[in-house]
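Suppose you are handed only these lines of text.
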Amino acid sequence: MRRVAREDIEIGGITIQAGEGVVLASDIGNRDPRAYRGPDQLDIGRNPRQHLTFGFGVHQCLGQPLARLELEIVHSTLHRRIPTLQLATDIDHVPFKDNEVFNGVYELPVTW
Ligand code: HEM
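From them, the structure of the protein bound to protoporphyrin IX containing FE can be written out as follows.
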């Protein structure tokens, strides 16, 4: 995300002056060990409310309740309907997208 400061503002001891541009890398912010314990570890018990994936502040994603609901439904349904679902290849062979905006994989071979 890119933003332009409308007025001088201090964040983390650094002053951003009015008119200056800022590039916000929320994916990197989500992995800041000063903000999150063990940020690179999958921890399904952690508090899911404090991340930056849906943005922050007044323009935080309006669709996040729908996105959360869709993900909850898809994961629980898949797990219930196909409990033996598993990767059909080594995780190192899964082609991840080399894209700063959209994370994901090009394909995910599975078996059950
Ligand atoms: C996992 C799915 C999604 C992710 C990761 C996501 C992420 C984001 C992010 C990072 C922003 C920018 C927030 C900011 O500027 O601070 C945003 C804004 C927005 N999103 Fe999403 N989004 C998702 C799904 C959706 C869905 C399903 C909808 C609608 C059905 C939606 C509607 C919007 C809208 C309308 C805004 C603009 C809000 C504003 O500027 O006030 N998003 N989203």
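What can we learn from it? The pocket of protoporphyrin IX containing FE is lined by residues 1, 53-57, 59-63, 66-67 (CB under 6 Å). Residues 64-81 form the longest helix (18 residues).
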